Amino acid sequence: MADLIGHDVAHPYAVWLRGDGTVVYCFTGPDLPPVVPVFPNVDALLEAEALYQDCATWIPVSLDDAPGLAAVEAHAARLTLIREACGYTERWWEQDGFRLHVWRTFAAVFPGSGARWAVWARNRSGELAARSFLSQARA
User: What integer best gives the mean pLDDT of the chain?
Assistant: First the structure.
């Protein structure tokens, strides 16, 4: 197992690479932590991070926690799944100039936390498409 990232101060979790290529996260606190498989391989981790970094330059449309997650995730079946960036607890979709990211990672690593989701738009047209998607998902 290789330690990819250690976040002992600001983020008390570690990112490890198992011998089979699986990327796992775990809490680094004093209790026995759950070791959570997050990505099937490093490539998926890198793709997900690249999308996240790209979205940092986009228009934030909705940066929500768990409320509405079930409806949004169910409605995401209408979007294009970005398979290269998906894992066991992370999913990315894209359509019409916007992206949806659902992550259950921290909810699995830190029991009691909720799953999270966010939507970003590339431009004004994507923002309108994203808002339409969200209003349909929540209807």
Answer: 86
